[in-house]
Specification:
about 55% helix, alpha+beta, two-stranded antiparallel ribbon, elongated
């Protein structure tokens, strides 16, 4: 049995019609099966013939609107809930990314400030030692 089964409207002549009125003959249908032979994937095609002469012309394949709503409404609510959860997660991740970018920028500015302070103190120490050497040599 196939996993997905679809019920399509048939005309009395046994044709499947879409909403635009385009019809195809449903008496001969093709079944595609994915198989493996000698380690390779292959698609096998089988033609199935259906006797459409026994179909009653008065059959209507429609569902009650309440049944349709009973099925679609939970799906719609689940989709809305999932979308809101995904948007919430995306918003949280965007906020985290902005916070990390701000922290990176602050760390870079702090590194630059500390490097300038270190270089000034190191230069002051070197200058002091040079002055002491020059002062000691002149005595």
């Amino acid at each position: 049995d196939p996993i997905v089964q679809t019920l399509l409207p048939l005309t009395p002549a046994g044709e499947i019609c879409d909403v635009e009125g385009n019809c195809v003959d449903a008496a001969e249908d093709e079944l595609f099966t994915l198989t493996t032979k000698e380690g390779k994937l292959e698609v096998e095609r089988t033609t199935i013939t259906t006797d459409t002469s026994v179909l009653d012309a008065g059959l209507i394949f429609e569902q009650d609107p309440i049944q349709i709503l009973d099925v679609l409404l939970p799906l719609y609510l689940n989709a809305c809930l999932l979308r809101s959860l995904q948007e919430s997660l995306a918003s949280e991740l965007a906020a985290r990314m902005n916070a990390m970018n701000a922290a990176f920028d602050n760390a870079a500015a702090l590194k630059k400030t500390l490097t300038v302070q270190y270089n000034r103190k190191r230069q002051a120490k070197i200058t002091k030692e040079i002055i002491e050497i020059v002062a000691g040599a002149s005595i």
